[in-house]
Amino acid sequence: MAERAALLEVRGLDAGFGAGPVLFGVDLDFYRGELVALIGANGAGKSTLLGVLSGLVPAAGGRITFDGQDLTNARPERVVAAGMSHVPQGRRLFGSLSVEKNLRLGAYLRRDVDVEADLARVLEYFPALRDKMARNAATLSGGEQQMVAIGRGLMARPKLLMIDEPSLGLGPKVVERMIEAAQAINRDGTSILLVEQDVVLALEAAHRGYVLENGRVVLSGRAAELEQNPAVRRAYLGL
Amino acid sequence: MTALLSIQGVTKRFGGVAALNEVSFDVGEGEILGVIGPNGAGKTTLLNCVSGVYRPDAGSITFDGHSIAGEPPHRIARLGVGRTFQVVKPFASMTARENAAVGALFGASQLALSRAFAAADEVLEMVGMAGKASLPVASLTIPDRKRLEVARALATRPRLLLLDEVMAGLNPVEVDEALEMVRTVHRSGVTIVLIEHVMRVVVGVCRRVVVLHFGQTLAEGTPDGVLRDARVIEAYLGEKYARRLVGG
After folding, report:
1. pTM
2. pLDDT digits (tens, 9 = 90+) for A202-217
3. pLDDT, average across residues B104-129
4. Residue A1, pLDDT score
5. What is the mean pLDDT of residues B156-172?
């Protein structure tokens, strides 16, 4: 890892929607080049946190600073333009559009000329998509759809890619491949925030991790240490 | 063990692609059978054929002596086949109890409204949601929504319950709790076919596993045998995961 400059700084973030508050005073520091795992039970607030960072869910309090800019309650398009892109849980592809169009939509805000090069790069991470570019996204297998979702996120050329539960509904071998792709993308310089229920896999892949419980950060540290932490093993690994 | 469900030579094509290609196996009364395989292998298509969502292009499906291939879903449900869906679809504006009651009103027993609520309470108890019966669905967590999906299917009084990835999206501790629920349902006398990617579930409750790959049966046997099968590792588990399973 090069220089440890803070890329994302979250301070005292509160949020809630519908039934009541979901996040309480969340602090999070994210350094350039990191792969950070966010773990916790269902309902702990992980997806809400990603939603707030993306500008999809309003923050009720606190502050989000990304790459020197205040992005607290910024609109999603500004967040994307600033360099954060979100791969949502359940893929959320445009099923009746082709794979290629889905991917290109990820670059919708960009006005630079490198879109073609980035499209080629996505296909290097996910060669299985190469001969499926013209197919409607809805006709792909779950694993291929997840590849398109991650690829679409990459097409925004983010500094930070947030991936929400890439393993959802996928077989073990495909999950493995998805995590390997995340690691390869990270090695090539994109920072990654990974929300994942397969806690072992997530912590093996990540540099650091945060544990979210009932909307609060209860633990954070180096991934290898979290994996050995007795409380984490009891609460999330079933050991 | 007599077969409660018998699937013989079932084929289902979409366009030119055979999503299922002459799949055959039996499910014994009282069994918990696991169906595993890569994404796109045809697992959900198979459940859709059994529950009447799809009509197979060839082959026969027999449940409790009735030929059910091509029968409409409601008739199959009333014969005693319950199912859950991968993406849960509760009635969002209703409570958990009301959702479960719909199953009881509609299913094999077609109860009167007052008895349907009693039946709903019974199945909510069985899936561990008795304390949340009066909550609106919108306030339920994902694990609870999955439990409710099972409760709705159970409320139809099935003899055979088809579970489609009820553990997806749960963390290991939540999976253990859901495993207990499956065991409780099974002890109540329901035969279960479950589609699952979470191997600790398959190993934890299934005596027998069928592996589908490209719409065909790739392997069949005990979880232990199947998960050590080189073809299954190649097609589905991956080397690293297989090593972890075998105790690496």
Report:
1. 0.83
2. 999 999 999 999 899 9
3. 90
4. 45
5. 92
Q: Quick one: average pLDDT of A60-69?
A: 95
Q: Amino acid letter at B199?
A: M
What's the pLDDT band for B186 if we cut at 50, 70, 90? very high
Nearest of B33, B151, B36 to residue B88 by alpha carbon: B151
Is B96 in contact with B129 (CB distance < 8 Å)?
Answer: yes
Written as six digits, the tokens of A47 are 């997806």
Q: Count CB atoms within 10 A of the CB of residue B74.
A: 11
Do the bridges between strand A160-164 and strand A191-195 make them parallel or antiparallel, or are there none, so unpaired?
parallel
DSSP state of A20: E
Q: Is A61 exposed, middle or buried (0-12, 13-18, 19+ CB in 10 A)?
A: middle
Calculate the average pLDDT of chain A: 92
Amino acid at A62: G
> Do A143 and B236 make contact, defined as CB atoms within 8 angstroms?
no
Q: What is the pLDDT of residues A171-188, one digit of tens each?
A: 889 998 999 999 999 999
Task: Examine the predicted complex and report whether its ipTM is higher than 0.85.
Answer: no
B169/A197 touch (CB, cutoff 8 Å), yes or no:
yes
Residues with Cβ within 8 Å of B112's Cβ and at least 6 positions away in sequence, in order, are: none
User: For residue range B48-60, what is the model confidence (pLDDT) as tens digits?
Assistant: 999 999 999 999 9
Kindly determine whether residue B141 and residue A42, on different chains, have CB atoms separated by under 8 Å.
yes
Contact between B223 and B206 under an 8 Å Cβ cutoff? The reply is: yes
Rounded CA-CA distance B189/B77 in Å is 17
In three-state secondary structure terms, A157 is coil
Whole-angstrom CA distances from A14 to A62, B20, B87, B246 are 6, 49, 29, 44
CA dihedral of residues A4, A10, A12, A14 (deg, nearest 10): -160
The answer, yes or no, to whether residue A2 has pLDDT greater than 50, is no
- If you count them, how many residues does chain B have? 248
Among residues B66, B36, B24, which one has the least CA distance to residue B159? B66
- Asked whether the CA dihedral A118, A122, A125, A127 is positive or negative, the reply is negative
Domains in chain B: ranges and CATH: 3-80+159-246 (3.40.50.300), 90-156 (no CATH)
Nearest to A171 among B38, B138, B171 (CB): B38
Q: How far from chain centre, in Å, is Cα B38?
A: 17
Q: Which of residues 187-206 of A touch B (CB under 8 A)?
A: 197, 199
Name every chain A residue with its beta carbon within 8 A of the beta carbon of B240. 176
The dihedral of CA B175, B181, B185, B188: what is its sign? positive
